[in-house]
Design a protein that fits this description.
The protein is an all-alpha fold. The chain has helices at 15-35, 37-46, 49-74, 79-103, 108-136, 142-170, 175-192, 209-222, 224-253, 258-285, 288-302, 312-340, 346-359, 361-375, 377-396, 399-402, 407-412. The chain has one domain (13-196, 206-412): MFS general substrate transporter like domains (Growth Hormone, Chain: A, Up-down Bundle), CATH 1.20.1250.20.
């Protein structure tokens, strides 16, 4: 079943899209402000990179456990209601950290629990949001919407880390988490104002959950390009999960304080905005294969530079260059994927894709902490760089990537 053609109204005049977009930009700002504080807070409490890595792994583990059943359930449930309830839950979770600080009872175990709960709710929210996007944006506007999303999130990721570390240092460790909780409230308000239903039709009669999950798995398995892109995205996300802790440890050893670390991540965010601004143009001018192969090779060549950066500001420059690549990759693969998935399978197929794509993240987060604590941050960089070279080689020789059809032809098939 294909979606009806939506209005070709410009995205900035699409009321419901702009409500969804603006709410998520504010929410991303809050998350960016608090996410950098979690490892800083754990390092301050324990002085253990491995403990910080465990927290990162706990945030990502829910994708391994929940993705498949959640994807099937999202295709049954009201997607908007799921998103609202998840944001309420994430607001309460973020607020629990400053409450515990105020009472003097904050422990490492509570931080671990908060990251696990937040990661679990993110799985539900993210799969519901991705499944809902084609309902409010026409198929041929998906690349533009993906680029605009990346631009907004990129700006939030520029401001967020510096904003969070400034709040952390100037006003106290609790304040970034309060800001994060308030950002989720803003997201809820924006979702409540959206008029477009996030489903094509009422939920079908309930069937066996295993049967529905199997339908999503079969769809992904039957499409060799999407199957490989899920694996490739997972391999890249293993590096993305390791990146924050590696950079924090390297920066501290180069003399950076908390605010300077926030600046490093903000420089990376500037790269992300640049990538999002050019992502749509690149998607139109080059083939799918050309973009994907080039992005993976560029990241493989840039990542080892972290090991030899002589100052923390150069760490930021390297991060900025690498961050340019992420939105370009996301715009191309994300819009391609959404354009060819039937609406009634959006939740299940995207959950299967994300199970693979995000399933590597807990490994990357945990492994970064272990490698840093036992062998040093520079050795960890070199090991992860080797992994990137393997991915670049595999992608170069994958015929499905090289010969992928243009998005318009793929969507019409």
């Amino acid at each position: 079943m294909r979606l009806p053609r939506l209005s070709d109204v410009a995205l900035w005049r699409n009321r419901d899209y702009m409500l969804l977009w603006s709410g998520q930009v504010v929410s991303t700002l809050g998350s960016a402000a608090s996410s950098i504080i979690y490892p800083l807070l754990i390092l301050a409490l324990t002085d253990s990179p491995e403990a910080a890595g465990i927290a990162g792994a706990l945030r990502a583990i829910p994708y391994l456990v929940l993705s498949l059943p959640v994807g099937a359930l999202i295709d049954r449930w009201d997607r908007k209601r799921v998103m609202i309830l998840c944001d309420v839950g994430r607001a309460l979770t973020a607020a629990s950290i400053p409450v515990a600080m105020g009472l003097g009872v904050l422990t490492l175990w509570q931080i671990y629990l908060a990251t696990l709960i937040e990661g679990s709710l993110f799985v539900l929210f993210n799969i519901a949001e991705v499944a809902a996007l084609p309902r409010i944006v026409s198929a041929h506007q998906l690349p533009q919407a993906a680029a605009q999303n990346e631009a907004g999130f990129g700006v939030a990721n520029i401001v967020g880390p510096s904003f969070g570390t400034m709040l952390y240092q100037a006003f106290g460790r609790a304040v970034p988490f309060i800001a994060d909780a308030l950002s989720y409230v803003v997201s809820v308000a924006s979702l409540l104002r959206i008029r477009t239903p996030f489903r094509v039709a009422p939920s079908p009669a309930r069937r066996n959950l295993r049967v529905e999950i199997a339908e999503g798995l079969r769809w992904v398995w039957s499409n060799p390009l999407i199957r490989y892109m899920a694996v490739l995205t997972g391999g890249l996300n293993l590096i993305n999960a390791a990146f924050p802790l590696i950079v924090i440890v390297l920066a501290k050893r180069l003399g950076a304080g908390d605010v300077e670390i926030g600046v490093i991540f903000s420089i990376g965010g500037i790269g992300g905005v640049i990538g999002s601004l050019v992502g749509g143009q690149i998607q139109r001018r080059f083939t799918f294969g050309q973009v994907i192969v080039a992005v993976v090779w560029l990241e493989a060549l840039l990542f080892p530079l972290y090991a030899i950066a002589p100052s923390y500001l150069l760490l930021g420059v390297i991060a900025g260059l690498i961050f340019v690549l992420g939105p370009v990759y996301n715009v191309v693969q994300f819009s391609y994927r959404l354009s060819i998935i039937p609406d009634e399978l959006q939740g299940r197929v995207n959950s299967t894709f994300r199970l693979i794509a995000f399933g590597f993240m807990p490994v990357g987060a945990w492994l970064s902490g272990v490698l840093i604590e036992r062998f040093g941050a520079r050795s960890a960089v070199l090991l992860f760089a080797t992994w990137l070279l393997v991915l670049a080689g595999l992608t170069t020789f994958n015929r499905h990537v090289r010969k992928a059809r243009p998005i318009a032809q793929a969507a019409a098939a």
